[in-house]
Amino acid sequence: QVQLVESGGGLVQAGGALRLSCLASGRTFSMFIMGWFRQAPGKEREIVAAIRWSGGSTYYADSVRGRFTISRDNAKNTVYLQMNSLKPEDTAVYYCAAGSTFATILTMRDPTLYDYWGQGTQVTVSS
Asked: What was the pLDDT predicted at 62?
């Protein structure tokens, strides 16, 4: 089992920045990929960004590429999502997820590859 705890959400004005953190505990050695997903009211959950735990290859959704950066600190078992130039349409609950299945840069966006999920953290961007 892997436990994931997100933090860092909040309310920010458009154009502002936030950094989300996801602390992993438990059988962290089994993790292959880590991802950030988000779900806005009335919408399906979507991939935001993902990273391989070893090697650091990354994937970004088109809507956030160039504004968001995913990174990991293996020693701290923590994954970060730096969000810059935030827009009102970024408002959502953001979820951290971990998967133990091999994934390519393209398949890292598939939510079915993720076995563990955090409880989510709310990000609200005001206009």
From this structure: 97
